[in-house]
Amino acid sequence: MKATSWLGALLLLAMAGATQADDATQKLLDCMRANIPPSLQIKEVELNSTDRSGAERQLKGKVYAARADGLIRVLLRVSRPRDLDGAAYLMREGGAGRSDEIFLYLPAIQRVRKISGASSDGALLGTDFSYNDMKQLQAAFGDTRPALEKPTTLGDRPVEVLSLLPPAGSPSRYSRVLAYVDRQSCTALKAEFFEGKTLRKELSASADSLKRADGYWYLSELLMRDLKENTRTRLKVTGVSGSADELPSRLFDPTSFYRGN
Amino acid sequence: MDTVAWLGGVARRPRTVLAAVAVATVIALLLCVNPVTREVRFQVDPSAEALLPAHDPGRAVLDRVRRTFGIDDPLVIAVRFEPSVYSADHVARIARIADGFRQLPGVTDVHSLANAPNVKAGDDEIDVTSFADQAARDPAVVAQFAADIQANPLYRGTLVSADGSMAAFALTLDALTPKDYLRLGFDARARAVVADVGDASDVYLTGTLPVRAATREALDRTLKRTVPAVFAAIAVLLLATFRSVVAAGSALLSVAIALVWTVASAVLLDIQFNLVSAIVPPLVITIGLSYTVHLLAAHFLSRTVLPNARNSQRAEWVMRRISTGLTLSATTTVIGFLSLLLNPLPAVRGFALLASLGTLYVGALTHLFLPALLNALRCTRETPPIATRLFGRFAAALAEFDLRYRRAIIAAAALLIVIGFTAATRIRGGADFIASFDASARVRQDFEAVAQAFNGANFVTVLIDARVPDALTDPRLIEAIDSFQDWLRAQPEVGAAVSYVDQLKLTNLALNNNEPLHFGIPNDDAAVKQILLFAASDTLNRLIDPQYRSALISVRINVDGSQAIGDFLDRAEARAARLPPSLEARFTGSSVLATRAVEALAAGHLASIAIAVIAIACLLSLMFTSVKAGLVATVPNLVPIAVYFGTLGVLGLPLNPTTSLIACIVLGIAVNDTVHFLARFNSDAREQGKEAGAVRSALNSVLRPITLATACLCLGFLMFTASELNNQVQFGLLGAWTLFVAWIADMTLTPALGSRLRIVTLWDLLRLDLGKSPQHTIPLLSGLSMRQARLFALMSRLERHPAGARIIQEGDLSRDIYVVIDGGVEATVERHEERLVLSTMTRGAVIGETGYFGQRRTASVDSTTPVRLLRFNSQDLERLRERYPAIAATVFRNLNRIQAERIARMTALLK
Asked: Could you tell me if residue B745 is left (phi over 0), alpha (psi between -120 and 50 degrees) or otherwise beta?
């Protein structure tokens, strides 16, 4: 699930924990949650990263995601570039009182390594998406301080503005996240990540990239821009299928996630 | 254009002049200061980069590094914890301080123990939590931190000082300028953050930004102090000298206006005030006030010479009297400045342009505005100038000395030139950077404290360029970079050297369960790429680009100053040349650019001086219509230049961005004194017909104003000694010293050399009136061009006599010949108390030639009308033969022809 709607999915999934929202906020969160399938498969995810000098690097792979007992499992398998073919990441949400688990498999090492304390700024495989962003999103959305702000429009589409504040004393990298949620699809078309008062990163998607598969809305193309580093990563997904059926458990097993398809 | 007529026209319209200057000044003020925001429009850029051309290769490399890696020299804040950083409490404080720093304006990143991951690997698990998080989780692990840091090449000597007493915070700042830094009070805020957390004994801030901010502050203070100080010091001098508040105030106002115009020109021409051009304002004031000394002297003289004249007449008289000297002075000064246009550094060229404009402005205002202002203000106070007698006695003694010891003076000057230039061979180009500040300056103390604790506080960036994507994942090339990095670390100047190779090795080690065998470079590029992608982070992105085709080695060096850094760079570049051909290493960073700027300055200054000397010699030759006279006027000015360079060589002072300007500046200014002396000497010599007497009278006339002007200049330069920047202090001291030497040379060597010289200025040549077509109407001048005729006349003496004056007395022994320019004379003899008129003569007649050939005067000659006569003798003709042989030959031929015709006439009469 750390692929396409990586953002969308995480936004939604994490929101499940929101408990102190008012009625309107809760209604929006419920609508967003309805977009989460029990399992998700993306045939191809493509991450095109552009560095400061304008040079591009492409990374392709597949993403599998599932919810088990309300906890997320996400597997990313890299197929391109060839040097990275076979590299795999597995993220398992820890749930209450337990930290997340990240497992890495690099063909060059030929071993699985568990990465702990990885809430660093480390870019995920050189993209503008980082573990930290994901965790911050989770922390923000999973906490109890969502609030609706004044609605606005993105292009011609009316959107609800969801403000997400981390709890005081939280190690969150971001001081605030603003999500612009499409009223029709309950999908976030834009998210702004603030460091203090500074907008550090911006995630955006065109309404044209909104797709529906098996009754679930998702975004087929997203752009994450790091405004400080002046870099960007465009994420595209194809062949998304949401399903009520369970994916094979070996895909999310630390001892076997890197094997086969 | 008829300059004389033009000056007269200007003098007759003082109100127009004053109004025009007032309007121009208001416009200039509006250019300098925004009247709405009251903010100044001119820019101050204290960076060494500002000295380099925009297309400089080193600057281009730095721009590329910034563009590709998004980095600049970090702001380093070192905080001391007693007894050691390594306690859980202190690590927690470090985390809180880092959070506080992160909230400071402009801070985009803070790297410290708080967020630096202390990677732990084992049992197939890699823990990448930060030191601070580890300490918070388990305070006992802090005891291991010192060993962890020591084992990590990325952190060794970077996060914590070698003795463990200081923690470092590297702050990345987003586009914060030195002006912003000062406006925000960043330094105080950063210290307050540490104070709020408590338990830290000392805080030290250093890096390019604080140093630039301190430089900017120092430049600001220097300008704010030196400008009023120069005004004040010279005002006192002017008041003491001329005893007139109005005169001194008018002079100061003229110069202040010139200063405003100069700053407005800087705004219009987009010239920033940097380490070099910051000298311009006090320099313009100093030069301007020295000019006003001459003008005020002439103004007060005009009131004596023309007591009953109208103001406009006096103003015209003053303008004409000073026009030759002032024009020449300003021109030579401007030539001295403009010679710096040859310098490769745009900052120096900007300085040259601005200083030239400033000089032209003060010259023009002194010439045109000040006389009008003085008369408008009715500056009529006529108390006798002070020390006139003293200067008179001194001038007389000096003249005797100069004439008596002429050869010794010339020999001593020649010796000084030889010694000076010989000692100059020991000079090295070089500039102190942090040592430019006084040892007590906080910015220097902070820098030195950090440099001592962390083995260096200057950074050199090495850009490794492989040009091909993924090339830097080739293990063979990585080995070469690693070896180069090892070599760098082995250099005594290097405190630390960090590159992506360190990150690669550390990540490889962690991925392999910390087995020491794997602290190395993987042997295939796919593995390298996988490890680098896994390790991808903002930190790694600052060491290698995402395409893996270029990388940086960040080198911290423990030396400062362009010489030491230049020596290191020379060796490092030689070693870098041995890298594989597919790798190109280029060195950059603020320290490197500053070093290159200083080297470029040193390279350009000799050419500038040579051009200035040649240009001034050519100008003087033109103005004195003789190459010999031009050289004689130039030589005295070589003495201070030689002494200046000799002083640098003997004292071991380096040529730096400011000291390298002194020679050209002083040359341009010092030649003024030479011009003033020679112009006066020329006039007096023509009037008196005796060079020795002219030396006495010229020295008597110019010693006082020249000495006062030199005192003004020296005072102005000495005001720089109040600066907080040592290079400006050096500039002030050396400038004053060199001007003092120039004064001595002009008061001794110039008279000694000039005492045998009759010069003719271009100004004289243009102003001389010999009537219509003298070469056709005066037989002695037949065959000469108008210019040659005037040159001959100026080598002679032009005399005016009223009607009835006795010009030649029969029976006298005298060798002078006369030529009638206009008017009439008659030759008479007295026989038996009877006066017999032999002949009456008008324009073109030659009289007294028999005396020239050694006989007594055979008749008396009296003027019958007011008459102008050209008078010359055998010495004049001999001088003419030496200086202008072609003219002399024609004159001798004409004289022979006149004699022959006269003999033929006499013979015919006898027949």
From this structure: alpha
Selecting from A57, A108, A118 the residue whose C-beta is nearest the C-beta of B547 gives: A57
3-class secondary-structure state, position A87: coil
Question: Is A261 part of any domain?
Answer: no
Residues 6+ apart with CB under 8 A from B831: none
B3-38+214-430+597-754 CATH fold: Multidrug efflux transporter AcrB transmembrane fold (1.20.1640)
Cross-chain CB nearest to A229 (options B70, B535, B545): B70
Beta bridge partners of B33: B40
Q: Which of A48, A89, A90, A106 to mutate to test the interface with B (most CBs of B within 10 A)?
A: A106
User: B70 and chain A: CB distance < 8 Å anywhere?
Assistant: yes
Q: Which residues of B550-579 are buried (b: 16+ CB within 10 A; e: fewer)?
A: bbbbbbbbbbbbbbbbbebbeebeeebeeb
CB of A114 within 8 Å of a chain B CB? The answer is yes
Q: What pLDDT, on a 0 to 100 scale, did the predictor assign at position B854?
A: 66
Determine the average pLDDT of the residues in B611-620.
Answer: 82
B527 touches chain A (CB under 8 A): yes
The complex's ipTM works out to 0.79
Q: Encoding tokens for residue A233? A: 């990563």
Query: What's phi and psi for B58, nearest 5 deg?
Result: -65, -40
Residue A1 pLDDT grade (very low, low, confident, very high; cuts 50, 70, 90): very low
* Predicted local confidence at residue B380, as pLDDT: 66
| Interface contact B545-A53, CB threshold 8 A | yes
Q: Which of B65, B119, B126, B524 to mutate to test the interface with A (most CBs of A within 10 A)?
A: B126
Which of A85, A111, A108 lies closest to A255 in space, CA to CA?
A111
CA distance A159 to chain B (A): 31
pLDDT in tens, A155-187: 889 999 988 876 665 556 677 888 898 988 888
The domain defined by B768-910 carries CATH number 2.40.50.100: no
Which CATH number characterizes residue A44's domain? Answer: 2.50.20.10
Using a CB–CB cutoff of 8 Å, tell me whether A107 touches chain B: yes
**Model pLDDT, residue B23:** 94
- Average pLDDT of the segment spanning B369-381: 78
**Nearest residue on chain B to A49, alpha-carbon basis:** B546
Nearest-Cα distance to chain B for A32, in Å, is 32
CB of B533 less than 8 A from some CB of A: yes
Q: What is the mean pLDDT of residues B110-131?
A: 84
The predicted-structure confidence for A93-144, as pLDDT tens digits, reads as follows: 776 667 777 888 988 888 888 887 654 455 677 777 765 555 444 433 455 4
Q: How many C-beta atoms surround the C-beta of residue B805 within 10 A?
A: 16
**Domain segments of chain B: what residues?**
3-38+214-430+597-754, 74-206, 438-560, 768-910
Dihedral class, residue A260 (left if φ above 0, else alpha if ψ from -120 to 50, else beta): left
Instruction: Give the DSSP H/E element, type plus range, for residue B529.
Output: helix B525-534
Token readout for B606 is: 């000799």
Alpha-carbon distance A110 to nearest alpha carbon in chain B (angstroms):
10
Give CA–CA dist A216/B622, Å, rounded. 93
Mark out the alpha helices in B42-141 (DSSP H runs): 57-69, 88-102, 131-137
Query: What are B520-574's pLDDT values in tens digits?
Result: 898 888 889 889 888 877 778 888 988 899 999 999 999 888 888 999 999 999 9
pTM for this predicted structure: 0.71
Contact list in B for residue A108 (CB cut-off 8 A) is: 522, 524, 526-527, 530-531
The reply to whether B517 touches chain A by the CB within 8 Å rule is no
Higher pLDDT, B833 or B842: B842
DSSP label of B889 = H
Look up residue B141 and give its two tokens.
């692990």
Q: How confident is the model at residue B433 (pLDDT cuts 50, 70, 90)?
A: confident
Number of CB pairs < 8 Å for A and B? 104
